[in-house]
Amino acid sequence: MTENMKVAVIGQGTMGAGITEVFAKAGFEVHAVDNSEAALERGRSIVAKSTGRAVSKGKMSEEDQQAVLDRITYFTDTAQAVSDCGLIIEAVFENLELKQSIFKTVDEAAPADAILATNTSSLAITAIAAAVSSPERVVGVHFFNPAPVQTLVEVIRTVFTDDAIVAKLVELLKGLRKSPVVVNDRAGFIVNCLLVPYIGSAIYLYENGFATREEIDKAMVEQAKYPMGPLALADLIGNDVCLAVLEKMYDETKDRVQAPAPILTRLVMANMMGMKTGRGFYTYE
Ligand code: CAA
Questions:
Q1: Does the beta carbon of 144 lie inside 6 Å of ligand 1?
Q2: Ligand 1 pocket, 145 CB below 6 A?
Q3: Most exposed among 79, 118, 277, 283, judged by the fewest C-beta atoms under 10 Å?
Q4: How far apart are the CA of 162 and the centre of ligand 1, in A?
Q5: By alpha-carbon position, which residue is closest to atom 33 of ligand 1?
Q6: For 131-160, what is each residue's pLDDT tens digit?
């Protein structure tokens, strides 16, 4: 399946560009898709910056970096981009109608044996699968930020998903040196189900003035040995993504612990999404 297989990644934001880099580094031809030249340019610069960092650290040669960049072709036409791809990964922002419409286009334009995957972190894979004529080939493939660094990938199956598709995807991910786990479709899957309420609780602590953001983050880095504290992590993930995950988990469970803090909704209204917009719980250069 993987011999000469092309991969399409739809959406070239932080996650989409990171996933594009993962596949291009592993030797795949990648068709990177977004809806405007400006969005594609943003994706191109994310991959160039990330691989450039590896070059400057002496971990990648300039020739290898160029080869990675040359394996990526950029498209604004989704149907054209996916027409000869064996794996299509959608990573656009969290809007169910948009994702369903992309999947309808992809379902019609992609080869009949292609795997149709979504990187959604908050929406029901089942709702996306139900929108297409071949839901058995729809699966969740949830990468973590930064995708080139984090090894875990959640593979999410729905009631429709063909077991053979799950098995193929798991093998493919192992070949990328990722560490896949398979999970059934529920809001938050495994990691966000446990991680995001923790981040949400830290936001309540901060909002209620129990401690400074630095003290909250330091406490978890020092004691739990997490690589970063919960508020810095919210800024890395994106406050919009954290909010979307909390809202979906709250909708599904009605569990008060999942309810997003008012300050999180206000940060998102103010476009303070974290690192990607330069300001969130912290301010970035
Ligand atoms: N893209 C590519 N590579 C990156 C990167 C990026 N955005 N950010 C960091 N890296 C690389 C660096 O180049 C470096 O690589 P080398 O070891 O090869 O030199 C390595 O990652 C470590 O980076 P740094 O030395 O700059 O910094 P660090 O040691 O402090 O690590 C971190 C930074 C990788 C972000 C680390 O703090 C970390 O793992 N934090 C936790 C992140 C996490 O939990 N992510 C999951 C969030 S949940 C999610 O994403 C899912 C969801 O749906 C919400």
A1: yes
A2: yes
A3: 283
A4: 33
A5: 227
A6: 999 999 999 999 999 999 999 999 999 999
Tokens of 146: 């930064």
6-184 and 192-277 share one CATH topology?
no
Active site residue 119: no
Of the candidates 272, 123, 99, 258, the one whose C-alpha atom is nearest the C-alpha of residue 189 is: 123
pLDDT in tens, 65-85: 999 999 999 999 999 999 999
State the complex-level ipTM. Answer: 0.94
Angle made by CA atoms 47, 59, 173, in degrees to the nearest 5: 60
Q: Which residue puts its alpha carbon closest to atom 23 of ligand 1? A: 149
| The domain defined by 6-184 carries CATH number 3.30.300.130 | no
| 105 within ligand 1 shell (Cβ under 6 A) | no
Please tell me the class of the 192-277 domain. Answer: mainly alpha
| Tokens 């803090």, located at residue | 261
In terms of Cα–Cα distance, which of 69, 107, 73 is closest to 90? 107
